[in-house]
């Protein structure tokens, strides 16, 4: 019996119209990165295990897929008991660790500040569930400095995000920004000792995602152990003036007992906020949100999260921040950086499910040349070649089916225009161009075909009545 065809759990396999919509989303992201001068980088899908897992913790290692050839597997099975060691290679679980290795390895060949973008698949052995994948695309940018990195780059990152999501057209969105240094200083000013900072920030990061009384109870509970009055004061400070960035900045200047970290973080946050607005990002799409903490410990300054206003349940669709030393495990050089990541697969799949993305309107071809008379195959090839050389995507129907079947194919493929040319049209020196969107037909002089096709494609699509 044949093996039943089925995809493994935890992967997103798309039909061609959906794949085309996804590819166009990635192309928009790529253009947005390149518009700001970011350079493309690709790293291998697998890394040496000892390099990849240098920075990982126990939980990360549980999600790693190891790579092993059949020959190496047989050798491992034949090895004496007690000599077990992980395979030499493992699939990358994010793009940050490979970037750290890449920058450290090629440090003396790169031009700093190094501006890189990377759009590739990553792999995590997570339990397959809705909205979470074992194989997925990440789209990352980072600016890496040598020894220092100016705050101007922190201000530039939201401008990149703004340009991309404005072009993608997924609806209104808000980029929220905060500063981890400021948060640490705020905790210090409230008398919260450093050993409890990580646990407190972990709870702070849940503001807006969980009910405040639950967060407040956990902060004052045995796990964190804050005085109830301190927990309340902290959440009041972080929640006040939500949506009013300038008022939030003013309130922070009035905090009692300001520490050096609070003062420095506040100054950084204000510079980033003003710098981003100067780059043309509207205040309506860029806000200071003091509850944004980002759970990853390596963020040391600016942090970002981006949300679709009409779809809050999606959570953050683009996030990142500043870190002081990207590649400290691989080089003695200090390499500070700032960057963001878009989880493209998760974002696309959920927007597709919510009908925000309509893949049925997407087509790869601009024109379909119909096969009216098989003896005119050379003419159809000539017409298609002329249109392709003009920069258009053109398909020639290859069979000898009736025109009704060919039009049905064009309709299902969502091709906007069909070119029709039989002996009568050829002898008259014309070509018929049918706009399949409006069911209108146009007799076009043969010499003016390219011009007329471009004019029709430039028109807004008007459905047939």
Describe this protein's structure:
The chain is an alpha+beta fold. It has three domains: 16-41 and 94-353, Bira Bifunctional Protein, Domain 2 (BirA Bifunctional Protein, domain 2); 46-91, no CATH class; 364-458, Rossmann fold, CATH 3.40.50.800. It has 17 helices and 16 strands. Helix 14 (377-389) links the parallel strand 12 and strand 13. The two termini are 50 Å apart.
Tags for this model:
465 residues, alpha+beta, BirA Bifunctional Protein, domain 2, Rossmann fold, 3 domains, eight-stranded mixed sheet, five-stranded mixed sheet, 17 helices, 16 strands
What coarse outline follows from CA principal-axis ratios?
Answer: globular
Q: How many strand units?
A: 16
Number of domains: 3
Largest sheet: 8 strands, mixed
Strand order of the largest sheet: 1-5-6-11-10-9-7-8
Within CATH, the superfamily of the largest domain carries the name Bira Bifunctional Protein, Domain 2
Oligomer: single chain
CATH class of the largest domain: Alpha Beta
Poorly predicted ranges:
none
Radius of gyration: 28 Å
* Proportion of strand residues: 15-25%
* End-to-end CA span: 50 Å
The CATH architecture of the largest domain would be 2-Layer Sandwich
Number of alpha- plus pi-helical segments: 17
Q: Write down the overall mean pLDDT.
A: 90
Task: Return the CATH topology of the largest domain.
Answer: BirA Bifunctional Protein, domain 2
The secondary structure category is alpha+beta
